[in-house]
């Protein structure tokens, strides 16, 4: 229903096709949603769209042309402009090894269906066997031009928060129960693996020192932060320090090519683990409660992914860090047993205050300002939780509305602010 006009009630948040409030036009087709398995992916950093996605595409391409003895991969758009910093060429060559692979960075402006576009060509004895055009659409997911999607069948029939809220309220369901009803009880085994890897990434990052590769000489700081204890440190300062240390830990693991979980992307992978691990340690939540929180967070990420974008190359960093902050806030709200209104408010306010955030990685590396942004967003998620606890009854903006706004804002951003390293801090640092 791309371009369909729907009516939104600001009082109850329910989309009303029969009239009422001024119309909201959704720019994404309102369809069913994929499994949370497609949102939370365990893999190596530093980028879900620039590393995991291209590596997956290359591996599938190799399987499709087993007779090939050499390959050429041409990168366009954001993949070309920041691919070296994101190790795109390394990931692709590893996936196509041991065969000779030529990677071409085509940085000239061109009309592209998606800013993360790549062409793969297979050869044998110098003769071209065939090729694919592939789009890395965010979160490690790829689309192959001219081929039907191979993604698992959509499992959620509802695709806006207002729809999900109305459904859950009618049946007295919490968000995690809605996830179980839609995905089946086996989803908990998967989410438990996700949770274990999130904790492992925090632990690994806290116990690793040194300088991140890439040429910026960025020092790992997580271990330093976690050790900076002061006798007279206030509770608020301690919380800030620890949460930030956890976010730094995961983000540094990602930047170093370590194993992380996309939540919803590699570049924003530190936010959700930071707040969730901290709150478990602080409040003593069980692992079962934690994965229920991850389920609620996943619904929020899925809604953004379905109705807007989680790709920095498509919509700027608001689509990555903003989405991660929104997910984290919703996950915390679920942990603390808040009602659906409060969960929506937490998710909405977290996203709302990242609107317009640019994606401007210095040198194309997921380091500056990316690592610090994860830490700041983690603290914002906790602040959003606090606001939801006290101010939900005053809200006038729905989660669906802010998602639509984020997408429109992202499409309006100049391309240089969408993961090209041609604007913002990336440009200033180069100068």
Keywords:
single chain, 431 residues, alpha+beta, 60s Ribosomal Protein L30, Chain: A, 3 domains, two-stranded antiparallel sheet, disordered N terminus
Explained architecture:
The chain has three domains: 1-30, no CATH class; 34-42 and 159-430, no CATH class; 48-144, 60s Ribosomal Protein L30, Chain: A, CATH 3.30.1330. Strands 5-4-6-7-8 form a five-stranded mixed β-sheet. It is of the alpha+beta class and 431 residues long. A hairpin with a 2-residue loop joins β6 and β7. It has 16 helices and nine strands. The longest helix is centred in the C-terminal third of the chain and has 22 residues, at 370-391. It has helices spanning 48-64, 77-82, 88-96, 161-171, 175-183, 187-206, 222-227, 235-255, 271-283, 287-307, 312-315, 321-335, 340-352, 370-391, 399-412, 424-430; strands at residues 5-7, 23-25, 42-44, 70-76, 100-106, 116-124, 127-138, 141-144, 259-261. The chain starts with a strand and ends with a helix.
Write down how many β-strands occur, each being a DSSP E stretch of 2 or more residues: 9
Major sheet: arrangement of strands: 5-4-6-7-8
Average pLDDT over all residues: 90
Q: Helices and strands: which structural class?
A: alpha+beta
Helix content: 40-55%
General shape: globular
Largest sheet: 5 strands, mixed
Please mark out the parts with pLDDT under 50 across 5 or more consecutive residues, or reply none. 1-30
- Number of helices in the DSSP assignment: 16
Terminal CA distance reads 45 Å
User: From the alpha-carbon coordinates, what is the Rg to the nearest angstrom?
Assistant: 21 Å
Proportion of β residues?
Answer: 5-15%
H/E element sequence = EEEHEHHEEEEHHHHHEHHHHHHHH
Number of domains: 3
């Amino acid at each position: 229903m791309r371009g369909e006009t729907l009516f939104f009630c600001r009082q109850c948040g329910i989309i009303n096709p029969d009239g009422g409030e001024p119309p909201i036009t959704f720019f994404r087709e309102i369809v069913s949603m994929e499994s949370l398995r497609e949102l939370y992916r365990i893999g190596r950093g530093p980028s879900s769209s620039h590393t995991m996605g291209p590596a997956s595409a290359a591996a599938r391409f190799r399987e499709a042309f087993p007779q090939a003895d050499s390959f050429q991969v041409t990168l366009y758009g954001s993949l070309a402009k920041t691919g070296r910093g994101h190790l795109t060429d390394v990931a692709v060559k590893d996936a196509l090894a041991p065969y000779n692979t030529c990677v071409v960075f085509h940085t000239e402006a061109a009309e592209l269906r998606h800013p993360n576009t790549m062409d793969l060509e297979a050869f044998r004895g110098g003769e071209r066997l065939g090729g694919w055009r592939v789009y890395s659409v965010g979160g490690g997911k790829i689309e192959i031009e001219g081929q039907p999607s191979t993604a698992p069948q959509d499992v959620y029939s509802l695709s806006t928060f207002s729809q999900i809220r109305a459904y859950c309220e009618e049946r007295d369901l919490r968000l995690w129960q809605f996830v179980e009803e839609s995905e089946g009880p086996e989803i908990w085994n998967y989410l438990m693996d996700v949770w274990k890897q999130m904790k492992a990434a925090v632990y690994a990052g806290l116990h690793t020192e040194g300088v991140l590769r890439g040429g910026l000489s960025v020092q790992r700081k997580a271990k330093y932060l976690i050790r900076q204890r002061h006798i007279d440190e206030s509770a608020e300062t301690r919380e800030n320090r620890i949460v930030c240390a956890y976010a730094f830990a995961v983000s540094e693991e990602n930047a170093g090519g370590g194993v992380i979980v996309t939540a919803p992307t590699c570049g924003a992978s530190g936010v959700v683990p930071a707040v969730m691990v901290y709150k478990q340690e602080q409040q003593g939540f069980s692992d079962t409660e934690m994965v229920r929180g991850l389920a609620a967070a996943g619904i929020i990420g899925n809604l953004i992914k379905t109705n807007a974008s989680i790709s920095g190359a498509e919509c700027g960093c608001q689509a990555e860090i903003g989405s991660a902050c929104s997910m984290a806030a919703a996950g915390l709200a679920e942990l603390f047993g808040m009602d659906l209104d409060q969960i929506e408010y937490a998710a909405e306010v977290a996203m709302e205050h990242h609107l317009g955030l640019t994606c401007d990685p210095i040198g194309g590396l997921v380091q500056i300002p990316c690592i610090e942004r994860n830490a700041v967003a983690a603290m914002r998620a906790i602040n959003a939780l606090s606001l939801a606890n006290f101010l939900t009854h005053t809200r006038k903006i729905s989660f669906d509305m802010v998602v639509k706004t984020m997408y429109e804002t992202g499409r309006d951003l100049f391309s240089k602010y969408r993961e090209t390293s041609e604007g913002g801090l990336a440009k200033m640092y180069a100068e």
